[in-house]
Amino acid sequence: MAAPVAIAGIWDFSVCNGSTTAPGTAAGTATNAGMVGNRYGCAATGTTTRDLEVSAWGAISATENVFGTAFVSNRGLDGFGVSSQAEGGPAAASPSDALDNDPSSLAPNLILLRFGGAVILDQVTLGWSTSDADLTIMAYTGPGTPSTFLEGKDLGTLTSGGAGGGWSLVQNVGDEAPDTAYAASGTRIDYSVNAGGVSSTYWLISAYSSGFGGGELDSLIDYTNLLGVAARDAPVPVPVPEPATSILVATAVLMIGRRRSGAGR
Predict the structure, then answer these.
(1) Which of 42, 85, 139, 153 is deepest in the core (most CB within 10 A)?
(2) How far apart are CA 82 and CA 31, in angstroms?
(3) Would you state the pLDDT for residue 62?
(4) What is the reported pLDDT for 177?
(5) Residue 40: what are its φ and ψ, rounded to 5°?
(6) Neighbouring C-beta atoms of residue 81, cutoff 10 Å
């Protein structure tokens, strides 16, 4: 049995910008703003507790196809993008400052979500996008702190083998017209994800890559920004009382044992 599942929250990244506050939502705080490796602390709608940390990861150079810290590109109402070191970090120009899988940037860009506790991720909302907007969703199911397991990993070692073996592919998710590229759009896209109810404190949102597994979607380059997420608290196991019948059986066995012991005297 498990306790009832409660809604953990909806995080709107358009107001998680370190300065403005929407009604009922705490402002975000940016750590090391303007630098590679910066992070944002965000609060769910209606709360003041910044219980979600957003950081970015991508290729460390144009010749080294391994993951390192990147710049969280804050696009306001368009959402968060990623500017990897290979793309120039804070100096990256559009659309390279998006969550993208442009092969010229080598490894696909990643956004790491660290919640205050284990949650079941239910929805991912995208803001601005162009060309295509497909994603790969991963959850951390291993031991320890996964942020240290991203550094220096590549597509082959992030989800299998070595210290990166704790990341598990949840799904690849695509837009409604996966084979047709489209012009830049500010229209939000809502993806329902994680139908299997995987729970984790750490989640990775990546521009789509077949290198993580899960089959092929399409060959279009994806450029998009992460505008928000919604999640539920993971269910807490409730101890199941020992059935009364088991207690009765145990008592009967004990009594039989005592009778046999008394008969043998």
Answers:
(1) 42
(2) 15
(3) 82
(4) 65
(5) -120, 140
(6) 28
Let me know: does 82 contact 71? Beta carbons within 8 Å.
Answer: yes
pLDDT score of 198 = 95
CA distance 115 to 54: 9
Give me 154's structure tokens: 């590549």
Token pair 């507790």 is found at 49
For 45, which DSSP code?
T
Instruction: Classify 2 as helix, strand or coil.
Output: strand
Write the pLDDT tens digit of every residue in 23-60. Answer: 556 668 899 989 999 999 999 988 888 899 999 999 99
Question: Rg of the chain over CA atoms, in angstroms?
Answer: 23
Nearest-angstrom CA–CA distance, 43 and 13: 9
Q: What is the DSSP string of 123-163?
A: EEEEEEEEEB--EEEEEE-SSS-THHHHTT--HHHHSSSGG
Structure tokens at 107: 């490894």
Which regions of the chain are under pLDDT 70?
Answer: 1-7, 18-27, 147, 160-165, 176-178, 237-265
Supply the mean pLDDT for the chain.
82
DSSP string, 168-234: EEEEEE--S-TTS-EEEE---EEEE--TT--EEEEEEEEE--GGGSS----SPPPEEEEEEEEEEEP
The fold for domain 7-263 equals: Jelly Rolls (2.60.120)
Q: Ramachandran region of residue 174, left (φ > 0), alpha (ψ -120 to 50) or beta?
A: beta
- Residue keyed to tokens 């450029």: 223
CA distances from 207 to 82, 163, 217 (A): 10, 22, 12
Q: Give the ranges where 67-185 is alpha helix by DSSP (H).
A: 147-150, 155-158
